[in-house]
Amino acid sequence: MLKILKIGTSWQNLWQSEEFRSDVRHELWRNIVVPVLAIIFALGVGALILSATGYNVVKAYGALWQGVFGSKVNVGEAFLRSTPLILIGTGIALAFRCGFWNIGAEGQFYAGAAAGTYVALTFANLPPWAGIPIALLVGFFTGAIWGALAGLLKVKFCLNEVVTTIMLNYIAIGLVGYLVTGPMQEAMRENPQTDEIVRSFVIGRIFPTSRVHYGFIIAVVVAIIATIVLFRTPLGYSMRAVGYNPDAAKHAGINVASSMATAAFLSGGTAGLAGAIEVLGVTGRLFENLSPGYGFEGIAVSLLVNNHPLATIVSGLLFGALGAGSQVMQLNAKVPAVLTFIIQGLIIAFIISFRYLDKNPSGK
Amino acid sequence: MTLLNNDQVVPRLEVRNICKSFGSLKANDHISFRVLPGEVHCLLGENGAGKTTVMNIVYGLYRADEGQIFLDGRPIVIRSPHEAIALGIGMVHQHFMLVPTLTVAENIILGTRPLFFSRSSLLTNTWEIEQEVKSIAERYSLKINPSALVSSLSVGEQQRVEIVKALYRGVRLLILDEPTAVLTPQETLELFDTLRILVREGLSVIFISHKLNEIMAIGDRVTILRDGKVVGEKLVCQTNTQELAELMVGREVKLTVEKKPASPGEEVLVVKDLNIEDHGVKTLRGVSFSVRSGEIVGIAGVDGNGQRELALALAGMIKPSAGTIKLCGMDLIGKSPAQIFRAGVCHIPEDRQKMGLVMDFSVAENFVLKKFSSRPFVRHGLLHPKEIFSYASRLTKEFDVRTPSVKKTVDKLSGGNQQKIVLGREIDQKPKLLIAMQPTRGLDVGATEYIHQQLLAQRDRGAAILLISTELEEVMALSDRILVMYEGQIVGETLAERSNVEQIGLWMAGVRA
Amino acid sequence: MELVGSLLQAALRMATPLIYAAIGETYNERAGLLNLGIEGLMLIGALTAYTIAFFYQSILLGVLGAAVVAGLFGLLFAFATVTLKANQVIIGTALNLIGLGMTSYVHRMLFNTLAGSAGNVQVLPTLRVPVLKDIPIIGPALFEQNLLVYLALLLTPIAGFVLYKTSLGLALRAVGEHPKATATAGLSVTRLRYGAMVFAAMMAGIGGAYLPVAHANTFVENMVAGRGFIALAIVVFSRWNPVNVLWASLLFGFTFALQFRLQIVNLRVAYQFLQILPYVVTLLAMVVLRGQTAQPKALAVPYTEQV
Hints:
With 364 residues, chain A is an all-alpha fold. Chain A is built from 14 helices and no strands. Chain A has helices at residues 2-16, 18-52, 57-69, 72-97, 105-122, 128-157, 161-181, 215-232, 234-244, 246-251, 256-283, 294-304, 312-333, 339-356. In chain A, α5 runs antiparallel to α6 and α5 (105-122) packs across α11. The N and C termini of chain A lie far apart (45 Å). Chain B is of the alpha/beta class. In chain B, α14 (415-427) runs parallel beside α15. With 307 residues, chain C is mainly α. Helix content of chain C is 72%, strand content 2%. The longest helix of chain C has 29 residues, at 2-30. The N and C termini of chain C lie far apart (61 Å). Chains in contact: A-B, A-C, B-C. The interface between A and C is large, with 47 and 47 residues.
């Protein structure tokens, strides 16, 4: 009892200190108010667009809501779609925290998907307990190498990663185009795609009624690990120091180049893992337009939560729900699903602009 | 005081009751003074006294919270540098405002021509423009090459370009912010000659400085600022350095720091024939010296004579092209900054905010910036927040860092408290060698004193200390031995007790003993 | 011979949208702004031009409309990045998402189609210069083109002249390199950057407009197909010099033209490699030219007045 009282009074003392209250206000503003406001504003603009184009806003958003929560299957679809977004968002968070502007998740995703497919097709007789982890690991490392390439170009040659990762996106997508029409094309040689992977490589579903598979669990675990790495390991500490102030990091004896290259490597790795999981868990084969823009959506996922890897689980689910729900909205209310691109873009724009209104900007 | 209120002459500039606050800091508190035509008016004050702030207000970079400005007797409002220029006000900033990738002429005409729809927007007649620039420069006997790229110019040349830039815009009031900080004594004399020509032509010059003898040499009148307030106005011919110094710091100047005589021991740092080349420019040429344990060796010199490169080379940040650096007999060249730190070399870098601290990190995270990856702060590969916090709390107390919590990010702390974090982090290592570069730059008197005391305490503990500072007073007050650097070489050495300012000044100007 | 001539002709045609977008972005980056959202702006330009051309049968009006609408989006970008000092990489990414979503959405609404094309518009006529068009090899490329191609050819030297020989160009070069010096010289960093951004957006809009009215005769979702990102690469590749933009754009245009030829003769593998060739070349060029980068110092760095 006494102890509780003590804690109570110390809380009271804490709460009375202006410093503490301003800290709390600041954190609340930055991590809760800004994202929520941004989502509300973006949905608001979306409503304006809907009504301007002759839709009943209530009906359209109702269909979106139904699309997410209408049935167990729908909820499952949201989780399914969020899986690559959480993984890519986590990687983007690591890279952005280190000051590495990785715009190349799309290419890294394809690199991982191609490598994962290759393993699944080539070593088709491996048992699931060995085959799936190997395929996923190879996917991770291929994506990681694709990301680290841009990282090395930055630290060795001082090339702007924004431009190089964009170039590497197109190169990866082009190479996948080559693979699925050339060496890896299906045996029938009809469509630009690979053969379907064997059953033993398919990642199992969590519930029999929904398409959501164990890849979602992997994504959540990766987000948790990334959070621990970023905030609780020396590596993460170096990465954050480099992201905030590379000069001071260098003076303190931190190896700036290797921190940055590692961030690029890990960031590419999670995107590559997402690609491999997408093939093994959802599509079953590799083809040219495997990603509906996950690489760019992942940037939004990370930004929405101020590049906090753990919170990408929440924002990834949100964006996954938007994406899955919009498909249902298109079917039931005949609203084009592309509306979600607009809403996602607006969410990013509003978040970034609202941060300007932050009364305690973080020194930047 | 009647002499000062020369009512017959309309002042070129009069500022009346200017106030300006940044957050809780009152940078200018009812500042008033007048500048007459044809005079060099000095603004004297310590770092942070508010000199630059009031001038940025006059130049339209900041807006005053209160107060009025009069130009030639008329009240004016200056909202931007553009308006200031149109009114005939020019400013040479401490950090030159020149675009390095453009030529001298391009920099000078930048912003003077209409951007659209005018014949003069065309810059096809490069030769004519360059001649025009040249003729203006020559009228005031300033030597510049209009077609040279600014990036290829020396500091002194760049300053001349800045002055010509102002003259080209028809300046009647020229503000110079700490113009000599980056100049050699020779260049300073040339600048003074130029200023004399300018005032003879009827211009008014505001000369911002904290160097007393320069004010005595060039000023007609001096307004002294302290803590954002005007504390005095004097005719230079009726005052002396002692009086000005007292007004500036607001107490008897204590030029000497109280310290025990040093008892130097073994040689800790031995530098032999060190050379550094940067893009073909030799920044360090055959530097040799040693620092023994229990002594402070001060390196004096005008900014930009190789001190920066020397400090960076010692800390392992840049690689010398030749020579040796030995710490207690161990070769340091080729070692990484982290290895050098572990070998016992600590470094207080010249710019705490850019090089010393991660401003977005908390006090605690900054305290472990150099050792977060070793025990006890890491266990089983994971950071150990409890250890980090308790370590940071201890240092916060020990070094009197005023912060509400060790979790506060350091960008919320004052400059003095930030520097205490850097100092504490380095000193707690019990370094064999401590390199302190400009350790008190921008700090108030109290913090400066504290830092000085800590350096002396380290010396008395037996550390070898290399103090690099462009503040000659600081070097002379703290050091046991003084070296002077000029153009990448050590040109003079003296024991502190036998040193005299004139001799060191000559060395700093490149006059060999 | 004739083959080379027609290939060059096609190359220049393919290069034209890139030239517009890259010239605009060169000015933008010279002023210190990095616009990752060119792709989105080009899409907006493409749909605007197509819509106006479709309903009002005026190609010229369509192109102008594209410039105006894209310019308005540029204004928004400038507000976010210059006034609100938001991160330019991020706002550019958002602009791409919004551009893609908005154009696809509006296209489906207006033309009541799902994804496919709603119908053709008139195509910009080819203006043939008599006699000169018969010069071997370069004749068709230079003298048998539509108006927008001719204008693009004129645009590069004009853009070069303005940048290097006028006070406006001087101000732009200064503000991307050292904004504070530019401000103290009496110029407004904000106005210069707003101006550069709006100009860049209008150019991207025209570049996008070129696709439906002079290239494809119709609008297809996501029809810009990465040209906006290629324009970014061209700016780096031409080292921020508008005159070089012409050559760099031609290189990309040439590989595009070659791709189409190879696709027709069904050489799929070579086609895929040709597709990635320009990106590989750009990367290699960046590596080779790395020491002598002309990248503006203040690129993508927001300017705050009180430092």
